[in-house]
Amino acid sequence: MDRTRTGIKSTDTKNSGEGKPSPYVSIRNFLLPFLGGFFMGIANLIPGVSGGTVALMIGIFEKLVNSLANLSFKNVLSLLSGGSFIEKIKRYGFDFLMFLAVGALFSIVFGSKPVSFLLENYPILTMIFFSGLIIGSLPIIFSDVTKKSKLLYAFLGFVFVLIMKLLENNYQNVDGSNGNLFFLALSGALAMCAMVLPGVSGAFVLVLFGQYERIINAINNFEYKILIIFGAGALVGIVLFSKILKFAFLRHKDAILSFFLGTMIAAAIFLPKGGILIFLTSYKNFSIFSLGFLISLIFSIYELKKKHMKVGGD
Predict the structure, then answer these.
(1) pLDDT surpassing 60 at residue 10
(2) Average pLDDT estimate for 164-174
């Protein structure tokens, strides 16, 4: 079974071609996580779209989970002990996380204004385009599920997102501006966990706990105390959650992927206001949906061909 696309197998030991991690960073090893971080950051700026969806679409989800799961005091302290610092960075996948973080930072700096412009002036077309991107990526996710009997879990994933959408549409936001600091950290942890899950919006979790406006105001006014506590909670939450996901992938990979397949289908359907079928209401909507679909589908076909060539070569 080929697991290299989604990141189960680390390529660190193959960079030099002689079984040892290369001390140098190849363009591909930098570019993939950088672009992944950039597009994940863009996705998190879109209401209803999660960074996890993008990570799964471009095949870095499991690599992301594995690298985050390696974040521990023991591993961080080991970087300061004897041995090659670069080799340890690459072994734990910390280089991947650093390049991903740089890409995410670039998306915030250079992508927030264009995304805000699109959402303010072309909200429906923007959502339709992202729906097309998600739908076009489904074949490659489907191909990663080796035990097709596990596809029943896709229904559970679909229902999960449906319930989240129903809550989002009917929930009245509460005022959490004066909430205690522990609650703020907990909100950060849960929101970050939601951002990793494909099809789930981390912003909704903040709305659910009444922390969305508080965090936005803290960012705009640079209230560092709130941001540090929120960030600490987010870091702890994502590390612990990634360890759970890593364990789940090792034991129940096909079931987890099938569940995520369902969450992505639901996300694509419910992302545009009025549902995905709104792309049929006009030629412009259909064209934008088709553009997103074709871009993603071409990438999926390329990945499938590369996967089949690798399997044939093995």
Answers:
(1) no
(2) 65
Between CA 194 and CA 213 the distance in angstroms is 18
Q: Which domain holds residue 138?
A: 12-313
pLDDT above 60: residue 238: yes
The pLDDT, as a whole number, for residue 2 is 47
Q: Quick one: which of 73, 275, 303, 51 has its CA closest to 169?
A: 275
310 and 3 Cβ atoms separated by less than 8 Å: no
What's residue 294's pLDDT? 93
The structure tokens listed for 262 are: 């369902």
Asked if residue 146 belongs to a domain, the reply is yes
Q: Give the residue with greater pLDDT, 3 vs 287.
A: 287
Domain assignment present for residue 108? The answer is yes
Token representation of residue 11: 């390529």
- Count other Cβ atoms within 10 Å, centred on residue 1: 9
The domain tally of the chain equals: 1
Structural domain includes residue 226: yes
Amino acid at 52: G
Within 10 A of 78 (CB to CB), how many other CB atoms are there? 14
3-class SS of residue 123: helix
d(CA 223, CA 229): 11
Residue 41 has pLDDT above 80, yes or no: yes
C-alpha dist (Å) from residue 75 to 68, 79, 92, 234, 277: 11, 7, 8, 19, 48
Q: Is residue 301 part of a domain?
A: yes
